[in-house]
Amino acid sequence: MGTVNTCENIFRNASVFIRRNLVQVGERKNIKNKKSLYEKVELTPAQEKEIQDFFVAHYGKTIPTMWHRLYQSYTGTFRYNYFPEILLSSQLEPLTNPYREAEFLGDKNLLPVLFGNLGIHIPATIVSCVNGILRDEDNSIISKETARKLLSGSTNCVIKKSKNTSSGRDVEIINPSKIDIEKKLNSFGDNYVIQELISQKEELKALNPTSVNTFRVMTYICDEEIHTCPVALRIGRSNADRDNIHYGGICVGVTKEGTLRKTAFSEFGDYFDFHPDTKVKFENYYIKEAGTTIREAAKTLHCQVPYLGIISWDLTIDTNGVVTLIEMNTTGQSAWFCQMVNGEALFGDNTGKMLELIRVR
Length: 361
Prior knowledge:
Layout: H1 2-33, H2 35-38, H3 45-58, H4 66-75, H5 85-96, H6 99-105, H7 111-115, E1 125-130, E2 133-135, H8 144-152, E3 157-161, E4 171-174, H9 181-187, E5 192-196, H10 202-205, E6 214-222, E7 225-228, E8 231-235, E9 250-254, E10 260-265, E11 271-272, H11 292-303, E12 310-317, E13 323-329, H12 336-342, H13 351-356
Antiparallel strand pairs: 1-2, 1-5, 3-4, 3-5, 6-7, 6-8, 6-12, 8-9, 9-10, 10-11, 12-13
């Protein structure tokens, strides 16, 4: 087994190296697409020095400041300790979230198994499929005919791929009685889940009723404790059925007291003090559970899976005021929009410690 383990380690290290470099190429491409935003921000010599002194002290080298300027371009807030997207995606996440574990635990079909007894609402499963094997809500294996019967009694529900998805892709609201359900299932491959359609709390529904509006709560482990990053609320618009910012949604920061910040933003810097469709004013808009409750729920969830150091949770609040877990993101996580809408550093006072994990030696 020694030879097998040695070969596996060589291939694993090669895979990590290739993945890291491909991710870096992607991040450089993404930042270039936002050049018109960060070029508007000019750092003073003192600000430039503050950033570089901090990163040299904790990361071991100076860094390009495009990401700092990009985050500042939204709220106008300078922070020397903003965490660049490229460092999170290509260095920190691969270290804290080993890919094998992260890929496995990120399967949406595991959510009820991992988190079903925590008092956090998980949308009820109608039918799931794991590696081509169909199951019912109790995870009992069923036939295609039984799956069709279960779905025939459902009205609107959500179907989504359970693996290798991001940014709202491969998610649809369907009415099984009005479509060719077998054709639809075949189009989603061998790994998917069909769930009940969530009814969200009135305060969230009022912001945009056509989408489930979700809180992005990132948690991370530092000094043997789970912490939360600045929280962002993603809101759909223009009758969209999803809230993702890549699908034209907007995003607004959420204070620790449970109120929304003054301005919401689109991905490319459009800003709104009122929702463009529902005309709801964002500043001081209060959602009771958006303060301590949503953050403590995310910490409770992370306690169940300490195998991973950083997790991005998509949460909402149902009509009963219960925190609802939509999904957890374990790979391909984002640093940018939580920082851009709050004007706060991703890891706050712990930024230096998180940088030291990937310090250049």
